[in-house]
Amino acid sequence: MRFLIFLLILFPIIGCSKTDDEIQQTDTEKEMYFPSTSNDDWETKSIKELDWNESAIEPLKDFLENTDSKSFMILVNGRIVMEEYFNGHSATTTWQWNSAGKTLVTAAIGIAQEEGYLNIDSMVSDYLGNGWTNETLDKENLITSKHLLSMTSGINDEKELIIKQNLTYLEDAGSRWSYHNVFQKLMDVVEQATNQEFESYFNTKIKDKLAMDGFWNNGLIFRIYHSNTRSMAKFGLLALNKGKWDNNQIINKSFFNESINTSQNINPSYGYLWWLNGKSSFMLPGEQTVYEGPLVTNAPSDMYAAMGAADQRIYVIPSKKMVIVRMGEASDPSNPNFAVSGFDAMLWEKLNDLIN
Q: What are the percentages of helix, strand and coil residues in the chain, rounded to 5?
């Protein structure tokens, strides 16, 4: 009788237990993965394995194609879940990041500060010399690199071409949030502080370490980064891991955390050139209106994003260990916003159907 009871207790334990190999495989799949920097290998994870809604895949693809997307990727724990190309684009085609590339400048600034070349709390004039703006010296000397990172320089934002004659005083630095191309002076700060061309420094410290395929090109009003889609996704993966790539802390973690948190008390949805979701209010480029509520109401509240004109996007969602990349033409050609647009909410409606 005792033996029978023992068997009854033991049987369900044996029947329900996983093998050591199954447990090890499950744990491995949960670990963060980083693609090879010496070849094109990149592990994948299927939508079926994630138990997502497979019936939502085609509606998402249709939406992306119909909104002039060129490419789209989803990573979970670093592994590719979706990688799609549209409208003549391919895995090797380069495309412009537009203002999403501002976050690359943030990364370079953080690295240069960690290496002792600069301090973001120091005056920009310490690196560029007096007279880099068309302001009086006392007003110019109020502007720090942190003000450029947080879009609070106070420089008049009526003209986007960054030449000295256009850099005139509007308000004291720190007292006004205004999305403005003067951020690119941070590239000059890096050059002067490190005594290297910005692209050379960027390539050594970021591009080469991630094996990105990209280059900086002079646009109409500022230098724009171009790369293939996987390179954009690699930077998103670096951002998901707070500046760490595999075992290498490329961007100082403390600085990175600063960059993805509110940088000033005027627009809580803006960090150091990163856009932040889940805050109490937000402002948009080209206006001074304060809108109540989060940036993208139907996206995860912990999301931070690199956003560029014509809906170039890197969404980073720590709670889901997820990175999402979109490249392409403007979803609404009549309204090619510099950053946030109605595209974000429409895309997240489709993504929520897939993920949830």
A: 40, 15, 45
Distant-in-sequence, close-in-space partners of 35: CB < 8 Å, separation ≥ 6:
41, 42, 43, 78, 230, 234, 237
> Which pTM does this prediction carry?
0.91
Contacts of 234 (CB under 8 A, 6+ apart): 35, 210, 211, 212
**Structural Rg of the chain based on CA atoms:** 23
Buried b (16+ CB within 10 A) or exposed e, 152-185: bbbbbbeeeebeeebbebbeebbebbbbbbbbbb
The CA–CA distances, whole Å, from 99 to 24, 102, 111, 180, 299 equal 42, 5, 20, 11, 20
Q: Return the number of other C-beta atoms located less than 10 Å from residue 20's C-beta.
A: 8
Q: How confident is the model at residue 356 (pLDDT cuts 50, 70, 90)?
A: confident
Q: Could you give the strand order of the β-sheet that contains 223-227, starting from the edge strand earlier in sequence? A: 95-96, 223-227, 214-218
Give per-residue pLDDT as tens, 61-120. Answer: 999 999 999 999 999 999 999 999 998 999 999 999 999 999 999 999 999 999 999 999
CB-based contact 69:95 (threshold 8 Å): no
Torsion of CA 246, 40, 226, 328, to 10 degrees: -110
- For residues 347 and 338, give the distance between their C-alpha atoms in angstroms, rounded to a whole number: 17
Q: 325: exposed, middle or buried (C-beta count within 10 Å: 0-12, 13-18, 19+)?
A: buried
306 has pLDDT over 80 = yes
The residue among 198, 179, 187 whose CA lies nearest residue 132 is 187
β-bridge mates for residue 328, sequence order: 69
Q: What is the enclosing helix (H) or strand (E) of 233? A: helix 229-240
| Mean pLDDT along residues 196-225 | 94
pLDDT exceeds cutoff 60 at 17? no
Give the C-alpha separation, 116 to 322, whole Å.
32
Tokens of 174: 């720190």
What is the rounded average pLDDT for all residues in the chain?
Answer: 92
